Amino acid sequence: TAATAQGLPPLEQKDQYTVGFAQTESNNPWRIAQTKSFQDTAASCNWNLVYTDAAGSAAKQVADVDSMIAQGVDAIFLPPREEQPLLPAVLRAKGAGIPVFLVDRSVDPNVAKAGVDYVTFMGSDFIEQGRRAAEWLIANSDGTEVIVELEGTTGSSPANDRKKGFDDAVAGQSGMTIVASQSGDFARDKGRQVMETLLQSHPDVTVVYAHNDEMAIGAIQALEAAGRKPGEDVTLVSIDGTRDALQAIIDGKLGVSVESAPFFGPVACDTMKAYAAGEDVPTWVKVEDRVFTKDNAADHIGEAY
Ligand code: GYE
């Protein structure tokens, strides 16, 4: 088949598959919505789903993938929590004849390649998400800004790429300076704590760019606790499009949330079927994202998670 010619393990065509989904953590609504999407799809796509939750530990996620390999699952869907530590597990799955589909995060592209070491990367263009957040800011600014950046999980592909997309766009603006950039691990409480600390050293902050909505909500809490007015004296921009973020936009506290859709189940089902049928699966199954602002947040909050 086309698959084996490229060195990828083939996938038999059959009515029911045992499918591994090795989740990174479950401490935010995005992850919970993604897990639910896989669980719903297990029913509609006739999967026997082997689900694990690494609880925020790359080491546990490696062990979870190894246990799926030992169980002999038919295929593995994996959001690698960080780019480097999950690489050996991806290669071990390939070596064991199990096709791996990366979802929503990638591994180091200099070491492992889609279409060679794993079937495909299914997910958003994170560089573009960061750039779109910057473009909204540039269009809604008087040109002079003191920016604090709350980064996602250190070493994860969305943190690396959302930083690059935003920072590169802002670098072209002479009046805009990123004065601090620190990880809040994509988590609300961590975002709040980091923002509290950064407010001490940068009380003149006018913009917070958070790599996801949960950290933006945490930053809003920290700003309000310090007597600042998010949406008035500090502009917040972030990424995901969660329900809480859309509500914060409606409330005037968050300026923009660039969408990063978590509903991978249906596309995972289709992609796996196409692969088993020997069809050409693109090396990047790209998710198209929208942008939520005060102009459309109320229209979309009903469908948000
Ligand atoms: O933005 C964040 C989650 O990898 C795209 O991970 C995903 C990101 C998402 O924890 O909220």
Automatic annotation (TrEMBL):
InterPro entries the UniProt entry points to: Peripla_BP_I, SBP_2_dom
MF-aspect GO terms: carbohydrate binding
UniProt subcellular location: Cell envelope
Keyword field contains Signal: yes
Chief localization: other
Gene3D superfamilies on file: 3.40.50.2300
One term under GO cellular component: cell envelope
UniProt keyword annotations, A-Z: Signal
Source species, domain of life: Bacteria
Domain Periplasmic binding protein intervals: 19-279
Family statement: Belongs to the bacterial solute-binding protein 2 family.
Record PANTHER family: D-ALLOSE-BINDING PERIPLASMIC PROTEIN-RELATED, GALACTOFURANOSE-BINDING PROTEIN YTFQ
Entry protein name: Monosaccharide ABC transporter substrate-binding protein (CUT2 family)
